[in-house]
Queue: 3 jobs
Job 1
Amino acid sequence: MSAIELEGLTRRFGTFTAVDHLSFKVEKGSIFGFLGPNGSGKSTCIRMLCGLLQPTEGRATVNGFDVAKDPESVKRSIGYMSQSFSLYRDLTVGENLDFFAGIYGLRGARLADRKKAVIELTQLGPYVDRQSGQLSGGWKQRLALATALIHEPEVIFLDEPTAGIDPVARRELWDLLFDLAASGKTLFVTTHYMDEAERCSDIAYIYLSKLMVIGTPAELKSLPEVSPPNTKRVSVAATPPAVGLRAAHNIEGILDATLVESELHLLVPEAMTNETILDGLRQPGLTIGEIREISPSLEDVFVSLTRRLAKA
Ligand SMILES: Nc1ncnc2c1ncn2[C@@H]1O[C@H](COP(=O)(O)OP(=O)(O)OP(=O)(O)O)[C@@H](O)[C@H]1O
């Protein structure tokens, strides 16, 4: 049995379809990245999978429980950490953990065991008596994760868990997520950060409420729509980048050009030489670096696929 299964899961708000016939499975122990632009339907889908919102059509199971028929069992068996997590600022870290444990009916020795386990995992020990409103963003996020794990759920939904925290805290939170997955927990994560998407075992990309692609990061990069036969992808630093991008679009025979940070990523025919590319880019006021052949990044994957769909 997969940890999560969706079959034609759909949600409409009036005449608007926010989630349109999604079907896929999430295997136990995976870190499943659920990606898509703002408004593509990710949160609506998660709310259905957490038993918080009824589907209009289709079905889904989480831990074997049907989200529409048995939402209470779903809620008990999952952890949920949202963008705007609901910690009580005036309560200490320890009191917050007690509060959320109480919701799940944990008491006595079981409560003590679970508190100890989540504090150890998230390393919140030194902060147990601190008011949670006084924690830094990264430590608040750890506390939110600890509260989501207090009842030992098998599946954890994390809706942009690292939004607004610094790069070091992000990396540390991801290390925790790896530990959880290694212990057999299933993580369903939304993120807008491509480096985080790279760390997922599988990725689904949602666009305009529909599933566009699903697969491992490596599978997505080798899709023929992303890496067509007889083409190569190169990167070249260009200053100023916007001028470089405009110049790149005028290179004869170029198949695609995008800016990834300050580098141009160009998709060109395999036979195109570096000289041709450099000649095409040469123009007053533009400084060009060395040309390097690269494999596509996930950002290249989503940009390529989205452009194709927009043109279709
Ligand atoms: N209760 C509601 N009533 C009407 N429309 C809604 C409701 N909830 C969500 N929507 C609409 O459904 C669409 C999908 O929203 P959703 O929040 O699921 O997107 P998202 O992919 O999670 O976006 P983000 O990345 O910004 O969090 C949006 O156009 C939103 O306005």
Note: Residues 13, 18, 36, 38-44 surround adenosine-5'-triphosphate (CB under 6 Å).
Job 2
Amino acid sequence: MVTHPPLLSLDGVTKTFPNGTVALAGVDLDLRAGRVHGLLGANGAGKSTLIKILSGALPASGGAIRWHGEAVRWTRPRHPREAGVATIYQHIPLVPTLSALENILLDERGTWRNRTADRERIGAIVSTLGHPFDLNTPVAQLPIGARQMVAIAQALAGGAELVVMDEPTASLAGDERQTVYRTIRRLAYDEGKAILFVSHFLDEIMALTDEVTVLRDGRAVLHAETDTLDEARIAEAIAGRAVAAIARPDQARSLGEPRLEVQDLRSPGKLSPVSFTLHTGEVLGIAGVLGSGRSELMHAVFGSDPDARGQVLLDGETVGRYPDEAVAAGLALVPEDRAEQGYVPQFSLAENIALARVSQRGGAFIDAASERADAKAAIDRLSIKAPGGDALVTELSGGNAQKVVVAKWLTDDTRVLLLDEPTAGIDIGARTDILKLVRALADGGLPVMLVSSEFEELLAICDRILVMRDGRMIGQADPYATSETDLTLMTGGTTDVAAAGANA
Ligand SMILES: Nc1ncnc2c1ncn2[C@@H]1O[C@H](COP(=O)(O)OP(=O)(O)OP(=O)(O)O)[C@@H](O)[C@H]1O
């Protein structure tokens, strides 16, 4: 194999935040043309900080960055962009009302435009991606996988030689992930781009990358060619300890008493009528791809969808159809969109955790000592990486902020736990801890509804799985008789649920 000199190298790069947190403690990293480099690390390991430095959003505190062998100091986003570095974030900042073409050209606004030439140039770039989409369609109407392609085309239109991708597949379903992988391979191997690919998914790192760097506590603790590694070795480097995957139990657990009765719950245009019962000690999984109605179902149960109609009863009592009534009744929802719905950024970790308790007790006062004790318990229980309960949520890494949202609802007043993608963006070690915790809470009697795009997780801890497609519940799968592939086929619409051996 011919090794190119690095396109970009980091040499002892450090970053210390004003509050004293050392996010990067001296990182070396070489990125080369024609190679896909995977970057992994636990929540808070320093991945986002590194990406922000590469994209000019944050200055490094020390160390050297070389681009084509020349030392550079990038202090503004336009510096790396103009040099040839494009960064694609998990939450794709596209303008939904503009067409794909207009989005791709957004960075070039203000320059002289020749529509036909633009269209031809962008059309040529899009054809290199191997996943055609209509340039005139407003982005809001494109499937999510195609939107990711728009973001990639936007990066390439700016002439990027290095494409940095921050968890680009986090919210994508199986087929859409495959599409992104194919495109990344084309970019690296046919177009000679360097790719830095950040992910929490070990299987995709193994399948997609040529080499891997693992960060832990701001240091690169492992760097190796991917084909010399296996998932267990990477997981151990991430967590700093051996991580055992959660094993599926051999036989079904018996279900307890019926607790939550959902009757004829529906929401026009989002959810067709659905009825089911959740039992004591049951983890009820909801499997479905993005847009299948899985989150809509959770919001309808919780009362946070004002258009939803139907009945929800807990222990025979009707639960009011507004979130505050649901909370007062003991329902707790950890929503998928945590940044918008899950926490108050201006509040400390302890204050955010206390919020749930206050609302569950109808606004009752919580004294400072219990607030501190609750925060400490949550930090320990979910291994939240934070200087302490006083830290602002905005000072935590993305995954640790998510853990705060999960933690805040784990109270004695929670009688039914609704979890929408609780492990999205959470590292392998903590992911296993959260799943074990959910299972243990259920084994202690708590009924849980769990939405997860990771079918492996559903199969590992659920007692039953409801399958959703196009806003409808299309059947029920038995985790003991269903494989991940079966669930992928059912949720993707390729297989009839009954045909896959599940009970409708
Ligand atoms: N603005 C900030 N002020 C203070 N500390 C910060 C700030 N942003 C991040 N940190 C801290 O820097 C460390 C690295 O965080 P970073 O966001 O880079 O982690 P990460 O690897 O991207 O994690 P995740 O997988 O959770 O996104 C963490 O300890 C975090 O709390």
Note: The radius of gyration is 24 Å.
Job 3
Amino acid sequence: MKQEDRGQEATLELEPAAAAVMAGDRIDSLREFATDLAARGEELGLIGPLELPRLWTRHLLNSAVLAPLLREGGRVADIGTGGGMPGLVLGILRPDVEFFLVEPMERRCLWLNEQIERLGLTNTHVKRGRAEEFHGAFEADQITARAVTALKKLVPLTVPLLREGGELLFLKGTSIDAEIEAAQKTLKKHKVRDIEVIELGADLLSESTRVFRAKVGIHG
Ligand SMILES: C[S@@+](CC[C@H](N)C(=O)[O-])C[C@H]1O[C@@H](n2cnc3c(N)ncnc32)[C@H](O)[C@@H]1O
């Protein structure tokens, strides 16, 4: 084993027991993605140099907590997928759902398409461009996003991509209450209702995840 390989092995987080519980029979594909992301993610600018020791908990499983919230047979648009979180992870975990991964950066789209092909994910498709470029081009039942922008800007980018009665599911940090406060006018304007902030993963992960969940429109 080369010296640099030993160095990487020492810093990469061991797979937590929760991974197999959360991924079920999709665990092998999730492991394949984790291995490639750990090996090439930093070089490709997909994850920061400090992320390897928390790749599973902070990135892969933090994304995976959304999987049980996705509607069976529905269509999900993940906005700003970057290196794959949460959209590609969810595409692995929920083969019954169709995913559109919306990402403007060419290099990231190439990476996502490579992973989709390698893992044989026939349910997952990359849409290269900014969310606003797809307004009127397609509709989703649910929209996911992580670390793209604050709620006040994210809502106008995403709501036009949602069908009536569709749902927003945004992975957010501790700033979410302040973000909701700052976005009050925008939320009202875009008919965002039934707003909840839910904590997910507390039973399985050392760190739970905060999710902004809301419906959009008058019906459904
Ligand atoms: C900080 S990265 C987060 C990537 C990934 N969601 C994650 O959590 O690891 C933000 C991503 O959003 C993308 N992005 C920024 N503005 C966007 C827009 N208007 N529509 C779609 N994607 C956007 C960027 O290209 C980038 O890949």
Note: The two ends are 57 Å apart (CA to CA).
